[in-house]
Amino acid sequence: MSAPLFLVGSLPSGDTYTLGGAEGHHAATVQRLRVGEELLLADGRGGSATAVVTAVGRGHLDLSIRSRRHTEPLHPRLVVVQGIAKGDRGELAVQAMTEVGVDEIVPWAAARSVTQWRGDRGARARDKWATTAREAAKQARRAWLPVVAGSASDPDESTAAVTRRLGAAAAGFVLHEEAETRLSTVELPDQGEIVLVVGPEGGIAPAELKAFEAAGARSVRLGEAVLRTSTAGVAALAVLSARLGRW
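Predicted structure:
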């Protein structure tokens, strides 16, 4: 089993380090790491370090730093615009997409989203997505944390922001069950951003699809089956990761 990963604000510059706070509590009290065991530290921005536990305290670990490395970001960036879904389906999508390597997740208040993020509720929901991404990144031993962008609560404003993002992308794709072109066959850039739009449970409204296509996005499909909003994004990322040589 690979060494567990813990996130820190910045990597230690010296040969020793004390892992405290929430991460130290989790390592010492929940995971019960012991002297001599190895772990990874990461700053979420590509930096990581291998360390060995030298002492265990109440809610903290003393560590000896053995090695450091920096992982460069991958190109092109994979950005998924995820339609806000009801219940825990959005969080399931965020978790799975983080594990397979998404670089940024953009919550989208689509016209047909059953759940809408408004006011404090929206801020809490967005923070929950960010926490889910953080924990999934740790589980996947990722050196880079995915970005979880903010979201406009008004569907018109949110869709306009997505349209602008698609217009600025190196390539933009919209998953749509009626599309004839398969994602596995489209031409992909080697730099910039690939922006992929995943609709909510109710699907993408015709006006939204028209705006996205006018911005330069292409409608694509994965196969014959119609996937849930919680699984479509991760399936599409798997296709893109294989084609781009990430996998």
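Summary: The CA atoms of residues 18 and 62 lie 5 Å apart.
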